[in-house]
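FIELD: query
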Amino acid sequence: MNIKVQETADRLLNRIGVSTCSFTTVKAAKRTLEEEGACVLSMQKPHWDLEPGKTYLVTQSDSSLFAFSIGSQFLAEEAAETDQMLRLAAAHTDHPCLYIKSNPEVDTKGYGKLNVEVYGGAILNTWMDRALSVAGKVVIKSDNVFEPEVRIVDMKRPLFTIPNLAIHLNREVNKGVELNRQNDLEPLAYVDGTEVEKEFFLSLLARELKVSASEILDYELYLYNCDAGDVLGIHEDMISAPRLDNITSVEACLQGLLNQNREKGINVIALFDNEEIGSHTKQGADSEFLYRLLKKIYRCLGVAEEKAETAIFGGFALSLDVAHGFHPNKPEKSDPTNPNPLGKGVVIKRSSAQNYVTDSEAVATAMMIFENEGIPYQKFASRSDVSQGGTLGSIASKYLPMKMVDMGVPILAMHSARELMAAADQYYLEEFVTAFFEQ
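FIELD: result
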């Protein structure tokens, strides 16, 4: 494997290891940006003193993050010039998983279990027989009722599992058995019920946070696959890991912003939550948050409103999310002329139904950057007899009607508890995002 591709793969696996839910993804991304000198801002502060040549970040609800770099030669009076236009790259921080309900403790004949619900479009059977851990947000009592204390938690160790039913008790299992989301997916916490603890999960949280159980008011907690990712294959050219959808794109956004050297204009990354459930939240792409943030950035830089509008709507955006790669065991599932094999480059996604926001002018711009930089790319289209997926690009474009293109790395086993990609494609994506920000 090429040394640069190897370094990219190792860094991606490290990112995946600390990005176990949307909250920990944002926490880790924030730490990375701060280590590189980014300043943290609050949307509740009416004015920001922004300086050219610096990078800033804002978070929303602890699960989405927005960061921006201002060119060292940025001039407010030239904000509407062609070379000063906004550049934006967006991705999502969440992934399909299992959400832990309130009062989750279940006792069945001395076995301790958790009551959970499915978050997003998970391939349910891939969550069976795996070591699962817990990550998310816990809210604790404070002296101010409107500002309870927030803790981001990641237990980082195997605590739960969902055991399959033995084939001797389910002879039809290999013919395809539908899992009941309520009964079949309750994770096992313990089998020694001699000392049954009615609130064993709450007690676990209290011990983890070093607080009393009575101080814990509420939480948003998820089970995640705590398998480590691997580089594999006889040529060591593949990555098998949880959460490739969409930490691949989160990492590309971060690397692109940190490695770019654009002297003029403003570069922005937007890491939204809740894409896997439709984006219709205050921290999702279907909100005015990003548009209001952009308006505030330009206002605080002293840019006249009409010039700010020109810079925003005349800008260009990337919507980054994984794409379906060609499956060698199911070739009939790919479009006959747009198969998108792994390792052959970043995928530009198209849809006549506008499930993807891409249009021909945006594609042309992306293609010219790819070709000028010598970065491999391919184009995606779904089979005409297969319903298409979508992502946050079309949703975000309701608020930001700028040119935009959907793209991402091709993967296999999308929405499985463990997915597969070619290591080289991550390198290509990161190189492209960096080049895009420098245009």
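FIELD: remark
The chain has nine helices and 20 strands.
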